[in-house]
Amino acid sequence: MLPLILLKVMTEKKTSVAFYDPGANITVITSKFLRELGKKQIPFNSSSTFNTISGTGRIEGIVNLNIQISNISKGTRCFVVNKEKTNYDIILGLDTIKLFQLRQEENLKIWLQNSIVSDANCKENKNEMNVHTYAGTPVSELQLKLGHLKKIK
């Protein structure tokens, strides 16, 4: 099983954990993280929902935030959800992936324009990852989590 790709990005000048999810159509931010940023959302009506692998979630509102990936900063529309217990602050969906023109290769390298911004390669038979960075992105800005994966004997 492949790992989750988590990136540290700057959101309104605050470092945050973003889950790179090309299977999501929209970019989502937690209401908890939005409160930490001190930003206000434009409320949605209570019938606004979205489907997830674990069920249906409710969209509380929408907010425009400045997100920086590597050295590129863009105004980004984020949908606000009430998910207090999560390991990441933002889910980067296809809308933001397209906005930043991020590209993912079959070997999990993530490209921003013509530079690689993350590169994960599994070590065979071990529950850990090698993380390599390019284009001046320090290793401290990248994080991969494997705790959700079942160990294979």
Describe the structure.
This protein is mostly beta strands and 153 residues long. The chain is built from two helices and 13 strands; from the N terminus they run βββαβββββαβββββ. It has helices spanning 31-37, 94-99, and strands at 6-11, 14-20, 28-30, 42-43, 49-52, 55-69, 72-81, 90-92, 102-104, 110-112, 115-122, 129-132, 142-143. The strands form two sheets. The chain has a six-stranded mixed beta barrel. A four-stranded antiparallel β-sheet has the order 9-10-11-12. A hairpin with a 2-residue loop joins strand 6 (55-69) and strand 7 (72-81). The protein is globular.
Helix/strand/pairing category: mainly beta
Poorly predicted tracts of residues: 121-139
Strand order, largest beta sheet: 1-2-8-3-7-6
User: What is the CA-CA span between the terminal residues?
Assistant: 13 Å
- Assign an overall shape: globular
Descriptive tags:
single chain, 153 residues, mainly beta, four-stranded antiparallel sheet
Outline the secondary-structure elements.
Blueprint: E1 6-11, E2 14-20, E3 28-30, H1 31-37, E4 42-43, E5 49-52, E6 55-69, E7 72-81, E8 90-92, H2 94-99, E9 102-104, E10 110-112, E11 115-122, E12 129-132, E13 142-143
Parallel strand pairs: 2-8, 3-7
Antiparallel strand pairs: 1-2, 1-6, 1-13, 3-8, 4-6, 5-6, 6-7, 9-10, 10-11, 11-12
Short recap of the structure:
With 153 residues, the protein is mostly beta strands. 8% of the residues lie in helices and 46% in strands.
